[in-house]
Amino acid sequence: MKRHVTLSLACFTLCLIGIGSAAPAPVPAQLTDQQFWSLSKDSSEQDGFFRSDNLLSNETTFQYIIPGLLKTAKAGRVYLGVGPEQNFTYMAALKPSMAFIIDIRHGNLDVQLLYKALFELSRDRADFVGHLFSRKRPDGLTTKSTVDEIFRAYLNAEGSQPLYEANLKAVEELLTKKHNFPLSSGDLDGVRWALSNYYQFGPSISYNSSLSSNVPPAIVGANGGNRFGGGGVTYGGLMMSDDGNGKEWSYLASEESFTFLKDLESRNMVVPVVGDFGGNKAIRAVATYVKGVGGQVSAFYLSNVEQFLVQDGKWDRFCLSVASLPIDETSMFIRSGAGRGRNGFGGFGGGGVNNSSSNNMLTDLAPCMGTK
Q: Kind and range of the H or E element at 120?
């Protein structure tokens, strides 16, 4: 009898081990260069267009929601976002294990590759800012310097053509030789376009800077037109801003935040994807991957993309795609404006980019969760 019980317990234990081994593996600690490139390429859709090149955010209150966001969203999960550098601030706060940046413009993928290279090439924040804007590092800046001290010093520094050319060469070599990414000539044009504008305008670059002076390469996907919203805010101003209560959350506000992102980028865990939020592929492909590695979504930063989805009659398709992501009661949407909401628009007017908000994903996706 004892022997029978012992064997039964052993069988039960082996069954548990078998079940455990059949479960999905956790989000990987890192991706190989091939895995990174394949995941980006295979998840992407056809290149699209937007009215501007979006080399930086024009959202002036994007930090205001972070304290409340951290009360619900969980660290160590998967972050999704759209656009350029504002994602880094949300990622530095949320501490995801992996991130996907999905944008309709191929140019944003190239901007993200540029940032990846600059994070890897830079030893600290002051070094990073110098590489981004092609300026010689001012004397006296250390890892203890405040973000205000760093940017005020660089605002007085002159751009350097030789530094720009050296930085561009270092970025291209890191991407194509160290990582062996098969960048197209268009990708190289996109990276060059972005870095040249950061060099040309420096920390004073604003949302309206680049298209006012020249025309981007086709791959950037900016079709011109009337630019809009908060054009006066500069890169330096965004980095030196706070959450309205004196707490600075920008990704360059602390050495800890920069180091976290540098590590994430160095492990190939920030994956850029070309995708239309109202399309049929990109978000669903990311959902399939994240589910396959046992991940959960902590937050999805949308900017004000829902405004255009509703205008184009694509919001319902977007809702169904996002509902396929692995989310729970702690997964959060981050927006500029209030979003579409359950009963139509929740208020894109009355603040726009100066009206950042967050809300529970399950609540907002309720209209389509039963039909996904």
A: helix 106-121
